[in-house]
Specification:
- The complex is a heterodimer of chains A (394) and B (279).
- With 394 residues, chain A is of the alpha+beta class.
- Chain A folds into 2 domains: 2-48 and 252-393, no CATH class; 57-220, no CATH class.
- Chain A is 53% helix and 20% strand.
- Chain A is built from 12 helices and 12 strands.
- The mean pLDDT of chain A is 84.
- By secondary structure, chain B is of the alpha+beta class.
- Helices cover 54% and strands 13% of the residues of chain B.
- Chain B is built from 9 helices and 7 strands, in the order βββαβββαβααααααα.
- In chain B, strands 2-4-5-3-6 form a 5-stranded mixed sheet. A two-stranded antiparallel sheet of chain B has the order 1-7.
- In chain B, β4 and β5 form a beta hairpin.
- Chain B is elongated and about 100 Å long.
- The N and C termini of chain B lie far apart (90 Å).
- The model of chain B is unreliable at 1-9 (pLDDT under 50).
- The chains are: A alpha+beta (394), B alpha+beta (279).
Chain lengths: 394, 279
């Protein structure tokens, strides 16, 4: 009955109700998008890191993995020492560098990763097979396309270029045995993976050097305590846990989280204002009706409840529409931010988490309830006789 | 002919340690950025040791100056410390010999075209590639271009939300005066006069609201700049309210206000006056 009365009240002014619902829907969509943006980047990056199934990343002291071109020497001994830690299950050494391949008169330059094929977590094979011999390589689709090559081709590739001697250095014949998707690289970035020993051997100054070592811990081991232990044992290296890497991402992309917080607050405020305005005006218009209801014995709480139901109905319908609208706009905004340089191609800025989404929309509905509270209470508390007289005169 | 001033630059990772090693003369001077100065507790005149790695032999240097980051978008999210030293000093320290990472080339004011100068350099120096400063700026500000597009998209959503909000409020305001409008119509005031009055009122509210919004925008942009300049230690301005932006916002708001007022007023004056006064 109460719901029917509330719906009848809202339908009496259809245009107004439709506009308010649309306004609440846009506010809800923005709120949802900002909640998705606030948690999406962090969780998306966490997904990438956990997908690799290595809990620690060791990079030259003071740097983040591949954030600079720094490398460390004595890699084999370093890996052996890290492996000696009782909590360490596996260590995957990686060397970053360049790979140059000619195509006609031009040169194609790619990011090269020297990896241990049995332990690597940097790419997922999508075509062909994995590296099995020192002269084999796996390229990503962008690299194959840029170099005009296909899986199965043999290419002559170099690791460097000496402008003084005008020649490429460390040139090798490599066989492309597979096409891989490099999980941590951005969309158009050209990439190639080759055996670590081959990558180290292609440049004289890279012998027995690595850029990063991925460390897999045994079940139950604490990443933070192992990281501290390893940093103490290896003063040239920083050991970065997934949480520390996420803190770094938070620092780099903190702007978006702050923007998300501000815009989410503005969206909530707009939704609150809209519902408050509509319910207040609606109640003011029906003061006479409310006074009559009170005069014939309808309890004050029932009048308050009915007005509140109107606010809740508006917020609920708006939030439901906003959920759909928010998912569409999130996709659009994600498409814009996908061009953000230096982030993995599959990185999602907007991640839909049902619990967070429903919590935020629940907050909007709560705002709807609060928005109706004051006008409802005011209307139900008016002196009945005086209000009836004034309404009759009007 | 190119009259070029050449600036060599070599980038390298260095380690800064506390001073106090055996005397050497003359001490070379370096400048460090203010973040490094704060983190390492260094001031102008302090001595330190520069090395290419932890534990590696290094050079004793004197801090001759403390620099502040320029307003460069590409630097914004980078957290490394910066040390600047003379090119020959860095070359000697890192043992790379007579090598540089890049040159900055200033063309003579009379140079016909930077493009043709770049083409001549590319033809002249095998193994190098010359880029126009503008192209480098575009490349390095890719982050900001993406953020700019994102802001524009958010702006579009905000405009849609504002339009709905404004239309809704105008409709409510006009609806609130149903009886007044009904009485005016019964007194013989024409529909056109009522529509014009409502539209004028909506336009005035829009303009006043826009001016208040501009003032709020100035305040908010000052707050944003103060906050993010502190966070990223940069003089870069993150939010700027220009006269063009104020004019655009006012015009948009005025248009929305007039349209909203027109729609609401038209809707009202179509109803019979007696119905408006509740009879």
């Amino acid at each position: 009955m109460m719901l029917r009365l509330a719906i009848t009240g809202l339908l009496r002014r259809r245009t107004r109700t439709a506009l308010t619902t649309a306004g609440v829907a846009v506010a809800a969509a923005m709120l949802l998008d900002m909640v998705m943006l606030g948690s999406g980047m962090r969780e998306s990056f966490r997904g990438f890191l956990e997908q690799q199934d290595y809990q620690l990343r060791m990079s030259p002291r003071g740097t983040m993995p591949f954030d600079t071109e720094a490398t460390v020497g004595g890699a084999a001994a370093l890996v052996a020492r890290v492996m000696a830690d009782p909590d360490v299950e596996a260590v995957a050494p990686v060397l970053g560098g360049k790979l140059f391949v000619t195509r006609g008169d031009s040169v194609v330059a790619a990011f090269a990763l020297g990896v241990d094929p049995a332990l690597q977590a940097d790419y997922v094979l999508v075509e062909g097979r994995d590296i099995a011999a020192p002269n084999e390589t796996v390229w990503n689709g962008a690299m194959l396309e840029a170099a005009g090559r296909a899986v199965g081709d043999t290419v002559r590739a170099a690791a460097g270029y000496d402008p003084q001697l005008r020649r490429y250095t460390g040139a090798r014949e490599l066989v492309i045995v597979g096409r891989g998707r490099f999980v941590m690289l951005s969309g158009g970035e050209l990439a190639a993976a080759l055996p670590l020993a081959t990558a180290q051997g292609m440049q004289a100054d890279r012998a027995d050097r690595i850029s990063v070592a991925l460390v897999r811990l045994r079940a139950g081991a604490s990443a933070d305590s192992v990281a501290s232990r390893l940093e103490l044992a290896e003063p040239r290296m920083s050991a970065i846990s997934t949480e520390a890497a996420l803190r770094f991402v938070d620092e780099r992309l903190g702007y978006f989280r702050q923007l998300a917080l501000i815009l989410a607050s503005v969206s909530l405020a707009v939704g609150f204002l809209l519902v408050t305005t509509l319910v207040t005006v609606s109640v003011n218009e029906r003061i006479g009706e409310i006074a009559v209801l009170r005069a014939i014995g309808v309890a004050k709480w029932r009048v308050v409840a009915q007005v509140l139901v109107e606010g809740v109905a508006l917020s609920l319908v708006g939030a439901t529409l906003g959920l759909g609208l928010g998912l569409i706009t999130a996709r659009w905004l994600n498409g814009i931010l996908a061009a953000f340089p230096g982030l993995p191609a599959a990185f999602d800025f907007f991640l839909f988490e049902p619990s967070a989404a429903f919590r935020s929309l629940g907050l909007l509905v709560l705002c709807g309830i609060l928005a109706g509270l004051w006008p409802a209470w005011r209307a139900a508390s008016l002196p009945i006789a005086k209000t009836l007289r004034e309404e009759a005169v009007a | 002919m190119l009259k070029a001033r050449r600036l060599g630059a070599l980038l390298a990772a260095l380690v800064l340690g506390p001073g106090g090693v055996a005397a050497q003369a003359p001490w070379r001077s370096i400048t460090i950025d203010e973040r490094l100065a704060a983190a390492a507790g260094l001031t102008v005149g302090d001595r330190a040791v520069l090395a290419t790695g932890a534990g590696a032999p290094g050079d004793s240097v004197i801090v001759a100056g403390i620099t502040r980051r320029g307003a460069d978008p590409s630097e914004i999210a980078r957290s490394e410390f910066r040390v600047r030293l003379h090119l020959d000093h860095l070359q000697a320290l890192t043992g790379v010999g007579d090598r540089v990472g890049r040159f900055a080339v200033a063309t003579a004011p009379a140079a016909a075209s930077v493009d043709s100068a770049a083409a001549r350099i590319n033809a002249l120096a095998f193994g190098f590639r010359a880029y126009r400063a503008a192209d480098v700026a575009i490349e390095t500000s890719a982050t900001f271009r993406v953020v700019n597009r994102f802001h524009r998209a958010i702006g579009v959503i905000t405009i849609v939300a504002s339009a709905i909000f404004l239309l809704c409020i105008t409709l409510l305001k006009v609806d609130e005066r149903r009886r007044d409008v009904g009485a005016l119509r019964l007194l013989g005031i024409s529909r056109g006069t009522i529509v014009r009055a409502v539209v004028l009122e909506a336009a005035l509210i829009s303009v006043v609201g826009s001016l208040m919004g501009a003032a709020l925008g100035y305040g908010a942009s000052a707050l944003v700049n103060w906050h993010y300049q502190g966070v990223y230690s940069t003089p870069l301005r993150f939010a700027i309210v220009t006269p063009g932006i104020v004019a655009f916002a006012t015009l948009l708001s005025l248009t929305l206000g007039v349209v909203a007022g027109l729609l609401a007023a038209q809707r009202l004056v179509r109803q019979p006056p007696l119905e408006l006064v509740g009879r």
